Amino acid sequence: MTADAAAADAPIPVAPTVLSTSERWKILAYMSALVVLLGFGAPNVGLIDIPIQFFLKNKFHLSAHALAGFRLWAAIPLYLSFVFGFARDRWNPFGMRDRGFMVLFGAATAALYVVFAFTPITTASLLTGVVILTCSYLFVLSAQNGLVSTIGQQHVMSGQISAVWNIVLVLPGIVGFALGGILSDQLEHRDASHAARILFLTGAAAMGAVALYGLWKPQSVYGNLHSERRPAVRLRADVARLVRYWPIYPALAVWLLWNFAPGAQTVLQYYLSNTLHASDAEWGYYNAIFAASFVPTFVIYGLLCQKVALRGLLWWGTLVGVPQMIPLIFVHSASAALIAAVPIGLMGGVASAAYIDLLIRSCPKGLQGTIMMMSGGLYFVSSRFGDLWGTSLYEHPWAWVARVNWGSMDSHFAICAIATTVVYALILPTLLLVPKRLIATADGQVAPNAAP
Fold first, then answer.
1. What ranges do the domains of the chain cover?
2. Architecture of the CATH domain 18-229+246-438
3. Res 188 pLDDT > 70
4. Which of 363, 353, 109, 386 is nearest to 251 (CA)?
């Protein structure tokens, strides 16, 4: 490669700048509204996903392992999220960049929701619908993620972005889990086609709102955003730069381990429903309380990240988060599980915010969308395969489990919770691989080597 070709492929140097408090709050408010709208329109979480899970469990009578298998197949586009992020980094719809993705694919996803709302419902049609909807939705999500991470890097506010992002992401999660569980109970009394129609039209309304939101171009957000991509960067050069960029590997490994939780998803749902006799609504309430309990520690993180270097927040957050699942082993009723959701959520807040902060700092310039979507893909690869392994362990535990005296604890669930704790503990040695320069500063502090 010649020197001229290398220069043409390199990102445009942009010096980090610290914005005023008022400008930062305007940016955070804009991003918060976008995150909330996308959270309500997502086909794979919350308001849409919870009823689908119970729909498959109660109407089609899928076993825990079969339901985990359905979710595994439905998440295929999510495993390939980096492809959508790469498209965001290289494509510029209507010359509007991220706003173009919001308008084009927000409208497309809304239209697809309407089509599937009036499609006859079977397991196959439901799986097809979720896969296609997810593909369209991921283009919009890649724009949001790329925009958020670019702003976080350019204005030295990755910690504040992470804290606020996590807080507002909880809102559609809380509403989605709570209403999703209630909606699931209500849909038990309706036929399958009518139930699916309600779900999909709800998603259509949310994604239509996202398309309209993309037409707005506030100066406080886009006037402070600088392009880091040169006009004609070669595809091969982008791929090569991505592969060679070491900081992304430990950050993604930490994220993968944090989301590999064999006891936290389908296993917990079936444990609460079948063993503790919780209703669909109570499962939704559990997830809503769990999500809401992260908020206080997210707020604390947003304050601490401006005073404490990321290194300390990563280590302390991980140490507190490792035993997160243990309280559930001692739960013996659905009401007790709702209470336990509070400390469990509190224990994971700092770690979750710190890991996203690390991901934002680790992105190579001009390829933020690719890395943030890659982290999203890893989340689903990790969580869905962890879920599948967890259901297998739950239904067919290792032989020695039966020989252990578990007292009043459910041995099947206990082994899944312990397995989750062991996986979380592996994050600690992984943190040693993170480049020290990335985590040596707090938010608002420009590292000495950060200038272009």
1. 18-229+246-438
2. Up-down Bundle (1.20)
3. no
4. 363
